[in-house]
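Please fill in the sequence for the structure shown.

STRUCTURE ENCODING:
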């Protein structure tokens, strides 16, 4: 509902659709919209910044996967909060990483001035939006379409200016480095918004905008027409239905997150029936690695089994990564990389095994191999956190810091370094042990600290807490997982030339769509250093 029913009604009276209505008109019917960052900032600013004033996500437009950024003018006139920048940057990163066209539906009053210190300056301040604009336009050749459907003021005007195509709407859109009041105060000129930066002025006189639409509907239709003129997208595969109904997903995970369940019961409700082949099923069974189909697309699946598992070496605890399982996953990822098979990580991991035996088996080196192969793999990686995501296991299972293409979570997701009870033992264990040995109860002050630690961890491990801070792209209904993953893989696999994000920055343009650029910054520096040396010797 954005800013609420009254603000929505005002938007309609002004002759404008709301951000979500615009998206609904823009995208292909029946294909769905996967929103990214819905809950960002929901628990901040006394609830006055729903969605941080911007709607971002992925959808299909004229059959082509695309990224959408739509300012919500019902929330403080679409002004930018600090978290608005975070959401826009994440949307742009999705576009860059996946070489997906991006559409900006601009309707914003600019920076939320009382909070400018968290918006304007810094490496990841508003300027980075324009940096990404420039990279997409000049280096990555990612199509950018900007529709100015309301105000677009001050530095925010550079977002459409750095796009490939600019459309403005008659009588309702304004684009300028300063509004009429600022112009009067700065240079003494008295003018109105339409004369200063309206659609007619920018399409007839300044030449800043490229097209003019009479209303929102025509503007959105013009964007769709632009998409029809892009090279045709790859067709999305169609597959078999899962072996079991999706409604059973609600019953797979136990009510108590510590209890075991069969991950196979989850997979048979997500993956296509038939064709699944598990890799090394009898070796390190606590990690399930299999090649299967998801909506017809071949994917590699990496998932944690839970509960106690029998092995020749003795029982294993599911959800824990052992040295053998780390090496097994590393080999599986390397094989997927060679075959160009995208990966789906289903996280329910409590961490790596510890202890004398684990260290003697080289758990640190095995874990490093698992992390390194995942981090350097250039194939698409999508994560769904279904339950635990703890310790270094979260990192090794393609945690968000390793730039997976998308990171989703179920409402049952618990992302944190450890569980609350483990934290209590780590922090207060020695003190509690001394008191117990002396036959004494914990003093009130210590008991209060322990209770506070438990409460803090309960809050930090809540899935909504992670979503509010962008630690997952979206919390999704388990029943919608297949649909969400289909669209996410369609986006991630649409461009054969797409590669790991940092490569885009250091590799320059590719010679062809299938050629990867320099794999590391060091490689880039070495190549360009040699080039400069040749140029110097020639001159």
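FILLED IN BY: designer on duty
SEQUENCE:
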């Amino acid at each position: 509902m954005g800013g609420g029913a009254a603000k929505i009604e005002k938007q309609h009276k002004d002759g404008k659709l709301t951000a979500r209505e615009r998206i609904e008109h823009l995208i292909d019917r029946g294909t769905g919209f996967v929103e990214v960052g819905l809950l960002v900032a929901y628990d901040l600013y006394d609830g006055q910044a729903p969605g941080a004033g911007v709607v971002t996500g992925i959808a299909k437009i004229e059959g082509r996967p695309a990224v959408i950024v739509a300012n919500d003018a019902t929330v403080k006139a679409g002004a930018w909060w600090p978290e608005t920048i975070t959401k826009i940057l994440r949307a742009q990163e999705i576009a860059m990483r996946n070489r997906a066209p991006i559409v900006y539906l601009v309707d914003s009053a600019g920076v939320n001035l009382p909070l400018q210190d968290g918006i304007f300056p810094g490496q990841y301040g508003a300027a980075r939006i324009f940096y990404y604009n420039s990279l997409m336009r000049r280096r990555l050749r990612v199509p950018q379409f900007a529709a100015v459907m309301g105000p677009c003021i001050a530095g925010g005007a550079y977002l459409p200016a750095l796009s490939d195509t600019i459309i403005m709407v008659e009588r309702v859109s304004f684009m300028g480095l300063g509004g009429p009041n600022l112009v009067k105060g700065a240079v003494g000129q008295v003018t109105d918004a339409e004369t200063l930066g309206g659609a007619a002025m920018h399409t007839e006189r300044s030449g800043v905008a490229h097209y003019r639409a009479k209303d929102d509907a025509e503007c959105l239709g013009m964007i769709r027409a632009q998409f029809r003129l892009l090279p045709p997208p790859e067709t999305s595969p169609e597959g078999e239905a899962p072996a079991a109904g999706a409604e059973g997903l609600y019953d797979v995970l136990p009510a108590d997150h510590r209890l075991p369940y069969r991950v196979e019961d989850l997979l048979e409700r997500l993956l296509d029936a038939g064709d699944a082949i598990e890799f090394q099923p009898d070796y390190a069974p606590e990690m399930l690695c299999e090649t299967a189909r998801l909506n017809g697309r071949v994917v590699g699946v990496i998932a944690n089994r839970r509960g106690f598992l029998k092995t020749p070496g003795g029982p294993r605890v599911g959800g824990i990564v052992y040295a053998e399982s780390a090496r097994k996953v590393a080999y599986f990822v390397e094989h997927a990389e060679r075959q160009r098979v995208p990966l789906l990580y289903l996280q329910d991991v409590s961490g790596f095994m510890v202890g004398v035996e684990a260290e003697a088996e080289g758990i640190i080196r095995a874990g490093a191999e698992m992390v390194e192969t995942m981090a350097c793999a250039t194939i698409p990686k999508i994560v769904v956190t279904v339950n635990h995501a703890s310790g270094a296991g979260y990192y090794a299972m393609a945690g968000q810091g390793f730039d997976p293409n998308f990171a989703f979570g179920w409402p049952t997701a618990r992302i944190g370094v450890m569980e609350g009870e483990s934290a209590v033992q780590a922090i207060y264990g020695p003190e509690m042990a001394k008191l117990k040995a002396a036959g004494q109860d914990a003093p009130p002050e210590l008991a209060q600290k322990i209770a506070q630690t438990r409460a803090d961890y309960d809050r930090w491990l809540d899935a909504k807490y992670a979503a509010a801070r962008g630690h997952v792209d979206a919390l999704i209904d388990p029943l919608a997982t297949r649909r969400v993953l289909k669209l996410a893989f369609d986006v991630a696999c649409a461009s054969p030339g797409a590669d790991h994000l940092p490569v885009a920055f250091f590799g320059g343009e590719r010679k062809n769509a299938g050629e990867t650029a320099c794999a590391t910054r060091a490689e880039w520096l070495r190549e360009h250093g040699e080039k400069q040396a040749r140029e110097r010797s020639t001159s």
